[in-house]
């Protein structure tokens, strides 16, 4: 059955309404799953850092779908377990260079960041223990749960 002028007009109206709604309410266009976030919350306000620094603490936040029910996610730095939690863990990069941060759980996602060296004389960084990752263990060349030189 071929589309009639009425069918075409109805479809065009729906497209127009959807465009108008997303223009008036931009949050509708971005609703749904939000990706990994790594934020600096050291000053009581969480912001995206300009750069990631060895030894600095960051909040590593799992992807979400705006649901009230959030399953436990496991968090990894270059494949090494950082910990497991419903929302987030504290990530302390221990080495300079490229780090691939990833999560598994309800939504699997990854983010690659570059970490710069800490200023000379900075204290030795340590990654806090935050629970296991469901028997995942350490894979790859991650820097979590390791002290430099170990």
Report, as a whole number of angstroms, the end-to-end distance.
72 Å
Total DSSP E strands: 8
Shape: globular
Strand % is 25-35%
* Low-pLDDT residue spans: 14-18, 27-32, 135-150
- What is the helix content? 10-25%
Average pLDDT, all residues: 75
Output the radius of gyration.
21 Å
Order of strands side by side in the largest beta sheet? 2-8-7-4-5
Give me the number of helical elements: 2
Main β-sheet description: 5 strands, mixed
Q: How are helices and strands ordered from N to C? A: HHEEEEEEEE
| Secondary structural class | alpha+beta
Give an overview of the whole structure.
With 150 residues, the chain is α+β, with helices and mostly antiparallel strands. The chain contains 2 helices and 8 strands. The strands form 2 sheets. A 5-stranded mixed beta sheet has the order 2-8-7-4-5, with no helix packed on it. Strands 1-3-6 form a 3-stranded antiparallel beta sheet, with no helix packed on it.
């Amino acid at each position: 059955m071929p589309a009639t002028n009425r069918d075409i007009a109805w479809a065009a109206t729906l497209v127009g309404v959807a465009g108008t709604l997303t223009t008036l309410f931009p949050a509708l266009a971005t609703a749904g799953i939000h990706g990994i976030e790594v934020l600096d919350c050291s000053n009581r306000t969480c912001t995206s850092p300009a750069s990631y620094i060895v030894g600095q603490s960051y909040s590593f936040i799992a992807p979400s779908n705006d649901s009230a029910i959030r399953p436990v996610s496991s968090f990894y730095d270059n494949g090494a377990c950082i910990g497991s939690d419903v929302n987030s863990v504290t990530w302390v990069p221990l080495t300079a260079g490229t780090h691939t941060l990833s999560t598994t759980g309800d939504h699997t996602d990854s983010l690659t960041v570059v970490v710069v060296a800490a200023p000379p004389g900075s204290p030795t960084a340590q990654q806090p223990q935050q629970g296991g990752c469901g028997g995942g263990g350490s894979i790859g060349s991650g820097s979590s749960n390791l002290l430099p030189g170990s």
